Amino acid sequence: MTLNVQHGRGLDRKVNLERIALMVEREKIDIVGLNEVDCCFSRRSFFEDQGEWLASRLKMNYVFGPAIQTGRKRNRQYGNAFLSRYPILSNHNLIFRFKVPVAEPRSLLEAKVATDERNIKVFVSHFSIHPVLNDRMVRFLWESDHSEPTIIMGDFNRKPSSNAYRMMSEKLIDCAALNPHFTFPAKKPRSRLDYIFVTDHFKVIESAVIESDVSDHLPVVALLELD
């Protein structure tokens, strides 16, 4: 599953992590990529470490990759989280930014996961709206080694008609290509911005966009089988 959680703020404008946890349980999700996650960030999310809270509530392993760090000790953070029912063997967080701040920094969280079949690589990111930074992030992934089973998921901030989507789909499989649905805004969706891409080590059994009020984006889910 991939979901931009908008720091847990639902369509009712209330921050509620429990309903995200209930959805993950209901859909029986094994790995989850989350964008716009707060870690002790501000009053808007009650200074909660949201990734840790969800992982504890769901009894899942997790890692967090900040894109923004602020505060005196840089302990107020905002970025991406990855939750997994499988062991997480390693993780790395890569920051994309301009030397002169013209756009919000973005991060790309990479994790290696030990599934029952074999180890897989997972990338989770909230891609920049800024065209130069977005292109830099997409090109990094396009040029990455995809010789091992890899899942890339997140809010790409780009439609299927974009150059970014074309590049990603040249080397990777869009899990929802045969069953595409809009993902934003959640109330009356009219754009497809959130994706799960995989290498050809996977067979896509099915995919769907879930109707939900937990955020301003709709979650995308995919059932995958390792060849």
From TrEMBL:
A GO CC term attached to the entry: membrane
Pfam family, one: Exo_endo_phos
GO MF entry, a single one: catalytic activity
Origin: domain of life: Bacteria
Residue ranges of every copy of the Endonuclease/exonuclease/phosphatase domain listed in the record: 1-217
InterPro entries in UniProt: Endo/exonu/phosph_ase_sf, Endo/exonuclease/phosphatase, GPI-anchor_lipid_remodeler
Gene3D superfamilies: Endonuclease/exonuclease/phosphatase (3.60.10.10)
Biological processes, Gene Ontology terms: GPI anchor biosynthetic process
Name of the protein described by the UniProt record: Endonuclease/exonuclease/phosphatase domain-containing protein
